[in-house]
Amino acid sequence: MIMETRLRRLGLPAFVVLLASVASRPAAAQVGTTTDIITGTVTGPDSQPLAGATVQATSVETRVSRQRTTDARGRFTLVFPDGGGRYELTARFVGMAPAQITIARQSDEDRIVASIHMGLLSVALEPVTVTARSNARSDRSGPGSSDRSFNPDQLTRLPIDASDPVAIATLQPGVLGTGGDSSSITANFSVAGQRSTANNVTLDGLSFGSASVPQDAVRSIRVVTNTYDVARGQFSGGLIASTTRSGTNIPQGSFTYALRDRSLAWGEVTTSAFGQGSTQNQLSGGIGGPIVSNKLFVFGALQGRWRGDALPSLTTADAGTLVRLGVSPDSAGRFVALAAASGAPTSVSGLSADRSTTTTLALLRLDWKASEAQTLTLRLDGSWDSQEPTRVGTLAVPATGGTRSTRGDGVFASLTSYFSGNFINELRGYFGRDRRTARGYLALPAARVEVASDLPDSGQGVATLAFGGNPGLPERIDNQGFELADEFSWLPGRTAHRLKVGLDVLGTRVEENQTSNQLGTFVFPSLAALAADSPSSFTRTLAPLGRAGTAWNSALYAGDAWRAAAGLSLSFGIRAEASRFTGAPAYNRAADSLFGVRTDRIPSEIHISPRAGFTWQLGGVGRTDVIHSTYLRGGVGDFRSITPTSLYAAALSAPGTADAATELVCIGAAVPRPDWSRYAQDPATIPSTCADTAGAVTVTPQPSVTAFDAGYRAPAARRASLALVQRFAGNYWVTLDGSYARGLHQYGFKDLNLTTVPRFTLSDEAGRAVYVPADSIVPATGALSPTASRVHAEFGQVLDIGSDLQSDTKQLTLSLTGATSRGAAFRVAYTFMRATDQSSFSCCSAAQGFASRTTAGNPDAREWGTSSLERRHSFVGTASYPITRALEITAYGRLVSGAPFTPLVGSDINGDGARNDRAFLFDPATAGDSGLASGMRALLAGGPSAVRSCLAKQLGRIAARNSCTGPWQPAFDLQVNWRPAWFGLDRRLTLSVLTVNLLGGLDQWLHGAAHLHGWGYGAWPDPVLLYVNGFNPATNRFRYTVNGRFGSVASSSGGITLPFQLALQGRYALGPARVRQRARAAAPTPAVEAPALPANLVAAILQRRDSLGYTPEQVTQLAAISDSLDARDRILADSMQAIVQQAGDRADPAIVLARLGPLVAAARENVRRALERARAVLTPEQWSKLPDALKASGT
Description:
By secondary structure, the protein is of the alpha+beta class. The chain is built from 20 helices and 51 strands. The chain has a 22-stranded antiparallel β-barrel, surrounded by four helices. Strands 22-21-26-27-32-33 form a six-stranded mixed sheet. It is elongated. It starts with a helix and ends with a helix.
């Protein structure tokens, strides 16, 4: 028979098609994140354990081999770091024929178990753990898990950015891209309704080694939404686990080039800097091989990305863009003229019209096989990133921007060891440093001007224009981290259990200064106020000196992976986690006596996390194939995240002392008159006190305090999941997956220096509480100072970081995965989600955290509401279709229901110092202000349908949190891949053309640039409903202007639109051909060899007639069954050979294997039926004495 072991390795051919494309299923089996355990027993002809046999395992992927001798019980264990999950096992023993089998990991298994039977049989018996996971990767998931693994070959075939981990993560159902801080991967996605800071990203198993690496250095990326392995920690949301490539015995690598060019963008929006798209060149390459064969290996990779975007700013916006942003062109022109006349620069000499971003990534890895029992790995990585200009708002002049540079580097080492007695140890460590600096072009205060404009299609719009400096700059981060992890495993007895204990210690040195508004901000309520040089307020946070501290997070865990019975795998254990912080600020006696907070104490914590998961195969137990028809998986557990470093940085920067962060708030007559020219010459002259007048509310800055509550605990979640997976019609799978997550100890903020007694209420706004006196509010502008709401005027905000908030998420996912006989593959999924919480804040400063929770009056009230992270309905799908042997088309689509949002007021009206007040929805029929009534009437008549519904059902009330919903967000893109076989390329080269924002182009074509619906990219509705334009002290009422753009997505993302664009990509693979890893003969050979049929097990049973004492009648019957099986197999073998020969040497193996699938299935069914007939012939006692390998059918 030809290629028998290959067939056993591949399993059902159609699943090769399925798994090699976009519809792969997860698989895992290893001690750590990159180490496989191969264990089993060698038996002789008498089915007794064979001591002294030599077992050699060779990785199919790397061709690295290891060997071991069986013990007295015939057992062997091989530990294989970075083996790839697929192995060829060869057993040798003096006087016996060598036995060779191919094994691979099964889904949810923590180790690979192989039974090898040696003897004189002409057909080697296959092991019980053969699978079709040709893309098996080295990330453990464990029983009960929900995850998905991707390799670079899969990802480059899809129309996504294969170098973006977040884009990859959103391929998994239940993962929501949030579009957070681009500097952090974890801040850009959410899982199970948990905040983005609840995620973890690992590289080669360690959390701190999560910086970006070259695309061609990535071996696999696994997206985990549920796992119950106690070795996995430091997250309560989702996990992205990446592994890097290593050198192998065969020199190999890959090179990738991707191009996006503005000249390949189409649509009328591309005439503006707000819609030109980007030009990006990305070149990545990696190559590795042996330094000493089978002993020492090296792999290196380098990636460069150069991106240029037309700089969108107020000065480059055309008339149509300005209208979309809610500003009339006349008002914008007048603003620019007034800003230039003020003395503040509106441009910078030499400033490019393009935003330039340059990124360089590098990696070098060495692997040393010190012995058959020990392997040492060393990895160096580095990243460099810069952007100029950065942080230029779309309604700001270019001079408000600055420059940003980021650098990260680290060193990783691991030692994997095997000890006699089936003990395994893996020790890993990483040290890294991340630095980021950003500075503004101008060391000036920022200036914001609120401009109301009459718009042609939506009534009156209100927008905030900016000049001067940037309130978010300067910024500096210099964090260092060290992580040490060790896991010790033991496989006792017959390997039904794998016991493990582990220790993980992570230390992060925090030194951050992300304090906003360090140079101050002037606010002008109108263009007239700007012309008169009369700001309504000036605020400033005087930045602290840099302080550093170290956060320590450690974990100790113990668990067991137990094969409880045939088809039932269990994983359970307990994880103990502890945290502490060293380097807290000094004790502040005044803060302690007045507010009861200890600035010198950051609470320590010990947390216990029990977990248990299971996978139960409901069919096919004991069969040699591993694709079972039905199984259940699920689990329950407790998960804990680490405290975000931004919270520690906030406490370090604001201990309430004179040299730390202090607040300055000036309103009305106390506002200093700006002197921009003087500030530009000497930044030290920027006001640090208010104007010394009789009407001054604040004269000197007040120290701020940020401290942890004594009962603070790190965020956690209690989670449970249950999934039913069913296979039908051969190559189709349907999965119903339900999960529940209860978020606990979610961090939130209280201002302990805010009075809890309202000074007055707003009678026309349902009695809304206001915490400042009415006579402290400036009548002309409605501006107010939170100083009047302070319990102790000598302090500013006193923020208490607590952990008393919660969340609740229920999720149900229905997915369908399939592969056709033509070679097409697809995966589609629908997720229903219901998430509520008390706050969805994740980023960034403590003051922003306090302001993030919207309020109807008392900001300290804990209210439940729809989570900002809820997307009630979401669909995601991927598909691939082979058009010819060399040409295929792939697709990626997503449809997500609208994001919830809250109608807001554009400024602080309750006096707590935060712009987080929910709007009162005035009924046009009863509103006393005619302008207000007119604006509300226009919105109710002409706004988007969802906006009209949201407003109408809440008229006469303060809006509820997240009571409105934005529009559905569709996205769809295509990619064409061509793998030519010409010129000896052997399909190593893949050339691709892909669309970028295909639906965005359709949106523009159907609706025009002025009426975009936000298709194809994330669109966030404008949440501001009302802007304050004054206060009536006689009636205690604010005067408002209605934002005619409320709920509109036209101004989403600052009005920047992504045009429809074509991108080009090329990838060249070095080393063994991916299509078929074999030497190319001089003469043409078939692209796929005819697969071998399953062994005739009945013939093997017949050979045991003497040892089992068969009767002559039994021998005759078994011989007839064996002959009948051989006859059927000959017919199938001829049919398979005909298909292979007809396909020829240039066929796409995926298509050929898919066509062979039904014949292989028929052969396995023949064996199953033959064994049923043989069992009926034998007595129960005879059948029980047969080896398990002879009783397991191949169906």
